[in-house]
Write a structure and sequence with these properties.
The complex is a heterodimer of chains A (about 150) and B (about 750).
Chain A (H helix, E strand, L loop, with lengths): L1 E6 L2 E6 L6 H8 L18 E4 L2 E4 L12 E3 L1 H4 L5 H10 L9 H14 L5 H7 L11 H11 L5
Parallel strand pairs in A: 1-5
Antiparallel strand pairs in A: 1-2, 3-4, 3-5
Chain B lengths: L2 H8 L13 H5 L15 E7 L5 E7 L1 H5 L3 E5 L11 E2 L6 E2 L5 E2 L5 E7 L2 H8 L3 E6 L6 H5 L29 E9 L2 H6 L3 E9 L11 E7 L2 E6 L4 H12 L6 E4 L16 H11 L3 E4 L2 H7 L4 E10 L5 E13 L5 H11 L8 E10 L13 H19 L3 H8 L18 H11 L10 E12 L5 E7 L5 E5 L8 H13 L6 E4 L17 H24 L8 H9 L6 E7 L13 E13 L6 E11 L6 H20 L5 E2 L2 E2 L18 E7 L16 H16 L11 H15 L3
Parallel strand pairs in B: 1-14, 12-13, 16-17, 20-21, 24-27
Antiparallel strand pairs in B: 1-7, 2-6, 2-8, 3-7, 4-5, 9-17, 10-15, 11-12, 11-14, 15-16, 18-23, 19-20, 19-22, 23-24, 25-26
Helix pairs in contact in B: 10-11, 11-18, 14-15, 17-18
Classes of the chains: A alpha+beta (about 150), B alpha+beta (about 750).
The complex binds FE2/S2 (inorganic) cluster (2 copies).
């Protein structure tokens, strides 16, 4: 099959098998290895990318579903101006340890901040519970998010 | 300005400051490379065929149909190992074949590996391998494995591995592959004259470490050289085991370790490396094997445990004696079982001033997936048991548990284990701090409880680490150290130490990951040893460079002058100064003389129980990171927070379950780990710096203790709320049943 889509702001055309996962397409065909694979079953959130601005698990999304749509991966987000604030907050709070959950988490946070879904403590707990992190104990992540949402001490 | 003053101002450029991680930017931008992100060219993909049965003889294995599938390059089976000096490996006991030979001992054991041009083809080919099994009786639980007529998993003489580190290993007895025994004082007397005796039987479950990055290995085998890129914590030990297995000198085996996506012990010692090398050897091309989560779960896990314990005391609450029997389920192969057993045995008495104690610990083979290391092993297994008995003594004596601990805990310098390292921490100070942090003295509410726990973990493993610091002609220092960056912040801490010694800002120090061809030896990354031991080697190496600079300059040199000094020294804009640092044991470094330091496991928790549902909520926790000196206090806190959440998972819901020898919850849909919702509303980490560690600037390791301390504190908090528990995890069902039982007992029903 042939698909056309926008990846990180640039048009991409590709031939692929209909059963190919978006995760494999991004990592293997486009070399965008910032998107991580862990659980394969839409539990961990490590493979999260933004599809038309909304977080999806690329391990459970077919590449063909992205046809005609806009995909943002961590490599694309890192080029944007808004990324600087996220980077600062995460670095300052040491909210990155092994970094394996980080790209998916950062993309999720980026999307949810824009929606205002992380403005309250409850919003953070509920909306980020789909991104597993085994290293941090989450506290540092929450502190970084509070800072970004303007609800915590910087 | 005199040089002395300069030195003084320079002190504190890096050490002790909460500096940002040197790898944060790379990781946030998705640029950090993990093993699975690498493509080494001409690379094949390996998929593992695994045994469907817990115990069986392989009657026949025919891979010819699979080999004929387009895209398949080869299929590795046990027959391909016959030319090796010995196909068995294991750093503690050489008991494990690279791939099954004639027999399988757990459901999930690798039976064959397909190497193909892509993963999908390799996966498809697995279905074309024909295997006929003859099922054998299986011993899936500790009880079954210890039964007099139990099927034996291993026969023939036991062979020690290269790195068990435990002195005489002893012979196998039935399915028991290792015993650890401590006998101290007159144990009978300590119980005969006691006013209070607490006793019980306890169970701790098998647990999955879940590093988000699963085991991933790329191997290339040329006739007399092996190159491996691996997500491994202990590259030098893996190198030695591969050299041993494939009959090569050490320098012909090269391990390259990129960033690791978490480890927690799951990537310690040798895991998927031998099988990947073996299939690459057959394929004649590089092969990558990446475990899925369900495969990672079958590759290594935490030991399940059964324990019988009793503790005696006087009516005034003076602890007298403790007697402990432990059985650890190591699965079908020993992996790190012997050391986990010894460490559990050491942790079992707890750091109290006993008149006598006795520990009998056994490491037991079962027909389940092998168990190895998981953060704070041994201590996590037993601390909750011992500490719940200490609290029960306090209750029976009418004493406050904090007060009882004050009266009975060992103090700095007291001997803990005959011939071993004496206590090197202020435990009473530590437990007082966590008690205060959770509001110990405040009035209690119904269905809420508070618990404290104190323990020690033998840390440091074998103390051998080397490091090199190269000061390049542009004034940038490159630190070569074999420590693996798995998330703990090792590269940042090593950079801080070198920066401090050289008076350089952090940006002018680079830390490389391990490449055993170039990086000096470091025993391993685990047992909380890196800051203490590899850090000390880095400090010595950096000092060596500074001493060389001082000799060149004729005085204590200004860091701004380094480039000019080197130019003068070498006569042009090239050359480099190389500093070396070595750390080795003072005595023999044996397990009996150790540990390098005692890692403090002190914590407190407040919980709330919903009596209608049995759901336990952890409201607040406090832990102590008793680190001697915090090289980076922010990273220390972050370590404790991560360990706290893992402790909550281990205590409340994590448990691997087998039904008929099959792992029943073998993926993340069925096996739950803590999410953000499980984070306590209040999580405090207290960093204690008494300068009493053997590492650089008085530092000692951290990051594991909280994982042992938190389940124990939670169990004690439940008992404080009126619900004593003897089986983990504390699932709602278990807690609910216990509450009903207690109600019945109370009404005499
Ligand atoms: S890998 Fe996609 S959600 Fe875990
Ligand atoms: S930082 Fe390691 S899993 Fe989140």
């Amino acid at each position: 099959m042939e698909i056309e889509l926008i990846v990180n702001g640039r048009p991409v055309a590709a031939r692929l098998e209909p059963q190919q996962l978006l995760l494999d397409f991004l990592r293997d065909d486009l070399g965008l290895t910032g998107t991580k694979r862990s659980c394969d079953v839409q539990v961990c959130g490590a493979c999260t990318v933004l599809l038309d601005g909304l977080p999806v698990s690329s391990c459970c999304t077919l590449a063909v579903e992205a046809h005609g749509r806009d995909v943002l991966t961590i490599e694309g987000l890192a080029e944007r101006d808004e990324f600087a604030a996220i980077e600062r907050a995460f670095a300052r709070h040491a909210a990155v340890q092994c970094g394996y959950c980080t790209p998916g988490l950062v993309l999720t946070i980026h999307a949810l901040l824009a929606e205002g879904a992380l403005a309250t403590e409850d919003g953070i707990r509920r909306n980020l519970a789909g991104n597993l992190c085994r290293c941090t104990g989450y506290k540092a992540i929450v502190e970084a998010v509070r800072e970004l949402a303007g609800t915590g001490n910087p | 300005m005199s040089t002395k003053v300069e030195t003084a101002t320079r002190a504190g450029t890096a050490v002790g400051l909460p500096l940002e991680r040197v790898d944060a930017g790379e990781k946030l931008r998705g640029q950090a490379r993990f093993t699975g992100d690498l493509d080494v060219g001409r690379m094949l993909h390996g998929k593992v065929m695994r045994s469907p049965l817990p115990h069986a003889r392989i009657v026949s294995l025919d891979a010819s149909r699979a080999e004929r599938l387009a895209g398949v390059v080869c299929v590795l089976t046990g027959r391909d190992l016959l030319d090796l000096p010995s196909p068995l490996y294991g750093h503690a006991l050489k008991d494990r074949p690279i791939v099954a030979i004639d027999r399988v001992r757990f459901a999930g054991e690798p039976v064959a590996v397909v190497a193909a041009e892509d993963e999908a083809t390799a996966e498809a080919a697995l279905a074309l391998i024909d295997v006929e099994y003859e099922e054998l009786p299986a011993a899936v639980t500790i009880e079954e494995a210890l039964a007099p007529d139990a099927p034996l998993l291993h026969e023939g003489p036991q062979r020690a591995g290269l790195f068990h580190g435990l002195g005489e290993l002893g012979e196998r007895e039935g399915n028991v592959c290792y015993r650890y025994h401590i006998d101290r004082g007159e144990i009978e007397a300590a119980f005969a004259h006691a006013d209070v005796v607490v006793e019980g039987e306890y169970t701790f479950p098998a647990v999955y470490q879940y590093a988000l990055e699963t085991h991933t290995v790329i191997a290339e085998h040329r006739p007399d050289e092996i190159t491996v890129w691996a997500s491994c914590q202990h590259p030098f030990l893996v190198r030695a085991e591969l050299a041993d297995l494939f009959g090569l000198p050490l320098h012909r085996v090269r391990l390259i370790v990129p960033y690791l996506g978490g480890g927690f012990g799951s990537k310690s010692y040798t895991k998927m490396e031998p099988i990947t090398v073996a299939v690459a050897r057959k394929a004649g091309r590089p092969v990558r094997i990446r475990n899925r989560v369900d495969e990672a779960m079958l590759t290594t896990r935490r030991h399940g445990l059964r324990c019988r314990m009793r503790t005696s005391a006087t009516a005034e609450g003076r602890l007298l004696g403790r007697e402990v029997e432990l059985w650890l389920d190591t699965g079908a192969y020993a992996d790190n079982g012997p050391r986990v057993t010894a460490t559990g045995g050491d942790a079992a008495p707890g750091p109290y001033r006993w008149a006598a104690y006795r520990v009998d610990a056994a490491c037991v083979y079962t027909n389940t997936s092998p168990s190895g290391s998981y953060r704070a092993f041994g201590a996590t297994h037993v601390q909750w048991i011992g500490e719940s008995q200490v609290d029960e003594v306090a209750r029976r004596c009418g004493l406050d548990p904090l007060e009882l601990r004050r009266q009975n805990l060992c103090v700095t310098g007291e001997e803990l284990r005959a011939g071993g390292k004496p206590l090197d921490a202020d435990l009473i100070g530590d437990v007082e701090k966590v008690a205060e942090a959770i509001g110990w003295g405040r009035p209690r509410q119904r269905w809420r409880g508070r618990g404290l726990s104190v323990g020690l973990l033998a840390a440091g493993a074998h103390p051998v680490s080397n490091a090199t610091v190269r000061l390049e002609s542009d004034g940038i220092a490159v630190v070569l150290v074999g420590t693996t960056e798995k998330g703990q912040g090792a590269r940042t801490v090593m950079a801080q130490i070198a920066a401090e010694e050289l008076g350089l800002p952090l940006e002018r120090v680079r830390v490389q990951g391990a490449d055993t061809r170039y990086t000096p030896y470091d025993r391993s990354t685990g047992a909380s040893r890196s800051t203490t031991l590899a850090g000390l080697a880095v400090q010595r190496a950096a000092r060596d460079v500074r001493d060389q600079l001082a000799r060149i300059a004729g005085s204590d040199p200004d860091p701004d002058e380094y480039v000019a000094l080197m130019r003068r020294h070498f006569g042009f804009a090239g050359g480099e100064l190389i500093g070396v640092g070595e750390v080795r044991p003072r005595g023999t470094g044996s397990y009996a003389e150790g540990p390098v330091f005692w890692e403090v496991c002190v914590g407190a928790a407040e919980v709330e129980i919903d009596p209608e549902t049995g759901v336990v909520t952890v409201l607040r926790t406090a832990t102590v990171a008793d680190v001697g000196r915090a090289i980076n206090p922010k990273l220390v806190e972050r370590q404790d927070e991560g360990a706290t959440l893992q402790g909550i998972g281990n205590a409340l819901f994590e448990e691997m379950l087998w039904i008929d020898g099959q792992l029943a919850n073998g993926d993340l849909l069925e096996y739950r780990i803590p999410t953000l919702r499980d984070m306590p509303a209040e999580m405090t980490c207290i960093v204690v710096e008494n300068g009493d560690g053997p590492g650089p600037y008085g530092a000692k390791g951290c990051g594991e203790g909280a994982l042992a301390a938190i389940p124990a504190a939670i169990v004690n908090a439940l008992a404080d709320a009126g619900v004593p528990m003897t089986e983990l995890p504390l699932t709602p069902e278990r807690v609910w049943r216990r509450i009903r039982e207690l109600e019945k007992e109370a009404t005499g029903g």
